[in-house]
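Comment thread on ticket #2218

A.B. wrote:
> Attaching the input chain for the structure job we discussed in standup.
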Amino acid sequence: MPEPRPSTPSGDRPSAGPAARTALPSVGARIGAFCAIVLAGAAGGFIGYAFVDLQTSGDATLAKGLGALIGALIAAGGTAVVVVLTLRAMGEWRTIQAVSPERAARTPQGGVRRPPRVR
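C.D. wrote:
> Ran it. Output below, let me know if you need it in another format.
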């Protein structure tokens, strides 16, 4: 059984405060990730169905259904892996930028990075 969180002398539970940061990606990024996984799963299902449909003749509804299911699972699973890695990289990038913005602008030799000149 988990222990209750400690309370302050007034009996209130301590809050994280308004400046509490979270490692969660933004709501828009999570919605976009979910939509990408669903669309990839649908596309994989259509591809799996068509792949089996081209190779069978007659009444092969079970085979077509399995092809659609396997195609959807493979496509959605692969997309989910890429999405998770992308969201983690975005979180790490934001953490690095928030912790040390002045350090991120410095070169290893101690100089300040300047944007490239374009002619």
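A.B. wrote:
> Thanks. Noting for the ticket: Residues 27-102 form one domain.
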